[in-house]
Amino acid sequence: MLWLGIDVGGTFTDLVLYDEATGAIRLEKTPSTPRDHAEGMMTGIGRLAVELDRVERIAHGTTVATNTALERSGARTAVITTRGFRDVLEVGRGNRVVLYDIKATRPPGLVPRSLRLEVNERTLFDGTVLRAPAPEELERVVQALRAAGVQAVAVCYLHAYANDDNERRTKAAIATALPEVFVSTSSEVLPEYREYERFATTVLNVYVAPRVRRYLTSIAARLAERGYRRPLAVMTSNGGTLPAERVVDFPVHSMLSGPAAGVIGAAHVAAASGHANLITYDMGGTSTDVCLVRDGQFAMTTEGRVGTLPNKVLQLEINSIGAGGGSIAWLGAGSFLNV
Questions:
Q1: Domain spans, the chain
Q2: Among 115, 240, 258, 285, which is disulfide-ready with 78 (CB 3.0 to 4.6 Å)?
């Protein structure tokens, strides 16, 4: 039985072929192809000279979602929210970005205020629908989205975790009128109370989704052409895997896909060599990821961040920054360091 592990980074694509019967391991490394990551992956598979119909399982780790968020290169995104709550993403928790710097400014969000649209709807904390969105108001929103040329929409209503009827109705209206636009609701992505974290995680999900969808769709098609007929497993931020079809809908779970796999691998190698306490340091071409392993265990969290962006799904406690081996540093105005 053959297993194939593939990690696609911003600079290089690494492949590991494992033969369970013999224990043999083969390695391959190819440059990544950002315009179509599947191309670099298929080049590596070709160099391994393996027939994919003999491969029992392919597990894939990727930094596409992570790099999309860090580089701010995702989809043109809009937010649909309850009237009076369009600035939840702006206000956040009201805390200072830098505790002792009163002049520190908050980093810009993924969605400008002009693309945060309000709907006159309301669900109460117990799930009671006080006001459903009127059809004519949903039509107004659809027209605004069409005029703005958005590629992704996050539907984020107050108390939707208790009752998602209004969110589902809004999503259906948008999906029917604009089928090419990716739409997620906050009740699908993170059905929990606390509006800021729920809204922010949903926005992150839709922001990276179009690029991740194109990427995984291309990979699945290329693998099928080469004879692979089994599901493609994608590493998730919590160290497990999900079918690629699920990740296409909820790519926020793959934000730390590649980094999570790196931590698990490092912890395994450290344990085999007698080291239970370590700090993993995974520098790629685009980002650098660091994780603390204590007594052989890595911590889990729901308070993660990708750069400055909050991500509340369950994940390994990995700290990521947008600087890697391929980053360019320079001195800007006033001799300030820029990366």
A1: 2-68+211-254, 72-208
A2: 115
* Dihedral (Cα; 239, 245, 248, 253), 10-degree rounding: -20
CATH number of this structure's domain 72-208, picked from the four choices 1.25.40, 3.30.70, 1.10.1760, 3.40.50: 3.40.50
| Cα–Cα distance measured from residue 307 to residue 74, given in angstroms and rounded to the nearest whole number | 14
**Distance, CA of 288 to CA of 90 (rounded, Å):** 27
Amino acid at position 311, single letter: N
Phi-psi region of 40 (alpha: psi -120 to 50; beta: other; left: phi over 0): alpha
Q: What is the pTM of this model?
A: 0.88
Architecture of the domain delimited by 2-68+211-254: 2-Layer Sandwich (3.30)
Amino acid at site 30 = T
Q: What is the pLDDT of residues 313-335, one digit of tens each?
A: 999 998 877 777 777 888 887 77
For residue 285, the SS3 value is coil
Going 194 to 196 to 201 to 207, the CA torsion angle's sign is positive
Give Cα separations from 317 to 103, 124, 251, 266, 286 (angstroms). Answer: 29, 34, 18, 14, 19
Q: How far apart are CA 242 and CA 220, in angstroms?
A: 14
